[in-house]
Amino acid sequence: MQTKTLKKSITKAVIILALIAFLPAVNCLAGGNEEKGSDKAPEMTTVTDMAGREVSLSLPADRIILASSRYLHEFAAVGGAEVLDSIAGWGSDLNLYDQDTFLAYKKVYPKVTDIPVVGHHYKGDFSVETVISLQPDVVVFPLWLKDSEGGKRRYQAA
Fold first, then answer.
1. 103 CB-side CA count, 13 A
2. What is the pTM of this model?
C-alpha cells in the first residue's frame, strides 16, 4: 500500500515540476513577451521543448492546438481569457474527463464550445488531418505521450 502512495506522490511531484517548466513556454507561445501593437514580423525562435528537442518556430504563435484541452488551465493562468483567441483547436479530454471544469469555462467563456475538436490521443481518435486543416503555428502535446508505445516509435532516432 505504501508503494502506491509513494508512486502517487512522485507522480504529483513530476506533474508539478512539468507545469513549472511549462508555464514560461505558455507565456512565450501566446506572445506574452511581445509588445502590443508592434508591426514587427515574427522572428524564428529556437526553443528546447520538455522532451529535450530543439524546435524552431515563429513567435508569437497565433494559432495553438492543445492536443490535451486540459492544458487550458495553464494557458488561461498565464494568458488570461484572451488566450482562448489563440486556441485554434484542442483535444476532447477536458469535456470528456473533467466536464465540471468544461461547463464552468463554458459559463464564463461561451466560445469554448466553438473551438474545433481534434480528437483525443488517449482514445485513439486524434485526427492529424483535422490538425493540418486548422493550420496551427504550434501543437502542444502532453510530455507523457513521448513514452507511450506510439510515441516511442516516433521519437526514436533514425
1. 5
2. 0.65
